[in-house]
Amino acid sequence: MHDEFRNTTTKKSAYAGKVYMELKECSQIRNYNELMKYRQLGSNGPIVSILGFGCARLINPEESEKAIIEAASQGINLFETGPGYGNSELILGDAIKGYRDKVYISTKCSIVDEYGMPISQDDLFQNVEMSLKRLRVDKIDIFNAWNIFDLEHFKAARKRFGFIDGVRKLMDEGIIDHFGFSSHDSPENIKIYIDSGEFELAILSYSIIDTTYEDVINYANRKGLGVIAMKPLYGSVVLLLSKIFTGQNSDDLAITGLQFVLSSRSISSAISGMTKTSEVKNNVKSVNGIERLGHTFRNNITKRYGSFYFSHTKFCSACRYCDSCPAKIPIPKLMKLYNVISIFGNQKKEFQQFTKAQTIQRNDFEKCLECEQCEKKCPDNLNIIERLKELGEILSGNEGIDCEIQRIREK
Ligand code: SF4
Ligand code: SF4
Q: Which residue's C-alpha comes closest to atom 4 of ligand 1?
């Protein structure tokens, strides 16, 4: 299977030459492939493929390995993982052994522990050591402070002998190459993180239905930070919503969604969660011709889709940060169900197909201890406890729910 991977680094067409010039002085793009486009991650960062492989949803090792190999063979050189994504680091480490020098691995560590207390340097060192072991590498290309929650946590991380001090030590020892952060905090606070001068890159959510961080993404770019866009399809909500209004199939919509994100020149790479080779192929197709898409494309997309995406519902973006419920409630799955009901209503074919495909246990809704752990972790501030109660009523009593289709029709 590994033979499928071809190192095409030395293949350079006329276009590739141009890319090289645009990217200033870079002697080599790791894993160069003519099918892919590359951008520099910030002023001093590596040259990364504009499509990055998000490893948060890797479950099946065999299928995942095929998808990772396919991605590498199509020129994807950025793989984003984390210790909080199940066996993701292990699966990725296994799949890319043998191509280590062809790709960039990005992983992360939270700056606070499960009780919201700042983690010690010893804990940081231990976490990094575990990540290195799982990934089977001796250094991390891109290391991120995961989900900086607020200013207070950030200040604690900057203290002497704190998290950031620890990362600097690891950088001095050559164990970490580049340091970034991810956050769902307010744009104002994110500007403070950018201005702190601690980071070389930021991982921020950006999609056709969620442009909250657009200004701060452009700001980061002006300040020389690289920006990696996460949730470019907002956990598939873009696909669900678009299907109602456009009748397009989901492959076309994924293409439009990714193209929208990548048509922003402030973004170096969009991380798309992939699990199958077919998804990799479709996503790679979507970045074709992306360098030619500019303001006109973005204006047309905003005009065409903007009104459709006007929504009263806050959607779950499938980050799975809440997936450690003490009552073992499968929260991400149920919040996805809530998305589907909010969009299609509970009588629609799509809703019935979704519930048929999923094993929804009725008593999942009754087990909640209302401990609020999940709500504290949710970057989208969703009222999860309330939604679980609503779901219980809808599914047992066949209650109706206002859905996006009705709202749009009533307009
Ligand atoms: S509030 Fe309920 S659903 Fe959320 S973590 Fe606690 S028990 Fe689980
Ligand atoms: S409910 Fe919130 S924390 Fe849980 S998966 Fe959805 S967005 Fe993430």
A: 374
Ligand 2 contact via 54 beta carbon (within 6 Å): no
CATH of 2-306 among 3.20.20.100, 3.30.450.40, 3.40.50.150, 3.90.1150.10: 3.20.20.100
Ligand nearest the Cα of residue 321 is 2
**Would you state the structure tokens that stand for residue 198, as one six-digit string?**
């601690």
Domain residue ranges of the chain, discontinuous segments joined by +:
2-306, 331-410
Residue with the smallest CA separation from ligand 1 atom 6 is 371
Distances (CA, A) of 147 to 3, 310, 351: 37, 27, 32
Give distance in angstroms: CA of 61 to centre of ligand 2.
Answer: 24
Task: Give pLDDT, residue 140.
Answer: 97
pLDDT of residue 360: 67
Spell out where 43-103 has E strands. 47-49, 51-54, 78-80
Nearest CA to ligand 1 atom 2: 368
Residues 56, 289: Cα–Cα separation, whole Å: 27
Q: pTM here?
A: 0.82
pLDDT (0 to 100) of residue 168: 97
Please tell me what DSSP assigns to residue 323: -
Distance 322 CA to ligand 1 centre (A): 9
Q: Is 396 exposed, middle or buried, given 0-12, 13-18 or 19+ CB atoms closer than 10 A?
A: exposed
Along the chain (411 residues), what's the average pLDDT of each consecutive run of 10 residues? Answer: 38 40 57 89 94 90 93 95 92 90 95 88 96 96 95 95 96 98 96 98 90 94 97 78 60 76 93 91 82 74 60 75 90 86 70 66 80 90 91 68 50 45
- Ligand 2 contact via 230 beta carbon (within 6 Å): no
Task: Enter the tokens of residue 320.
Answer: 């799975």
Q: Which helix (H) or strand (E) holds 176?
A: strand 176-183
Torsion of CA 108, 113, 114, 115, to 10 degrees: -150
